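Late entry, evening session. Most of the bench is empty. Finally got around to the prediction I had been postponing all week. Sequence below, unchanged from the version circulated by S.P.
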Amino acid sequence: MPEKVLLSWSGGKDSVLALRELQKNDNFEIVALITTITKGYDRVSMHGIRRILLEQQADSIGIPLENVFISNNASNQEYESKFSEVVLEYKKMGINSVVFGDIFLQDIRRYREDFLSGIGMRGLFPIWGKNSIELANTFITLGFKAVITCIDTEALDKSFAGREYDEKFLSDLPAGVDPCGENGEFHSFVYGGNIFQIPLIFAKGEVVLRDNRFYYCDLIPT
C-alpha cells in the first residue's frame, strides 16, 4: 500500500516537478496539496498568485487543495503555528510526511526537517540534488507551461516578470542566476502540461513593484 503524503504547493514549477516525481513512484499517494496564503492579499506568499488560480490548478490536477492562512507580514512563529494546525489534522489520519520541491539549499531543507520532526512528521525531497539546468530543460521538454509571476530585482530586471518560462527565458538569464530560481531569483505559475485535465486560462495584468525590491506580474482569472 502506498504511503499517503502531503505535497507543499506553491503553484510553481518546482512543486510540479516534485509532483511528477511522486506520480512516477507507486510508493506514494498525494492526498492534498498544501499551500500558504497571505490573508490580506488572498495570494500565495512570495509567488503572488491569486488563490482562485491555485484552486483551479488543484481542480484540474484532481488533488484537493489545503490552504494555510497567515496574516500580512506574519512572523515565522505564526507560520509554524498555522502550518502545524493544518498538518497535524492529517497526522491524526495517519499521514506523517510532507513533500517539498527543494533542490539544493541545505539550510532550508534542515529547517523543514527540524520543524517537522518537532511535530512528529518528516520531510521528503524527491528532486533534491538534481541538476538545476537538467530540471529546467526537463520541465520544458515535457511540455509544461509556466509564466514568471515574481522576480527579485537584486538578480533580474523588471522585464523578466510576466515572461514565459521557456528556452529563451533560460538563455537570457544573467550569469549566476539559477535556472530554477532556487535562490529566490524568480517564481512561477504553471498553467499547462500533462498533469492537467484542462489548461488554465488567465490574462496578464500589470507589473507592480513591492517592498522596493520584488516585481509581481498579476495573473487575472478569465
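Two things to note before I forget:
Residues 2 and 114 are 25 Å apart (CA to CA).
The longest strand covers residues 28-38.
Will write this up properly tomorrow.
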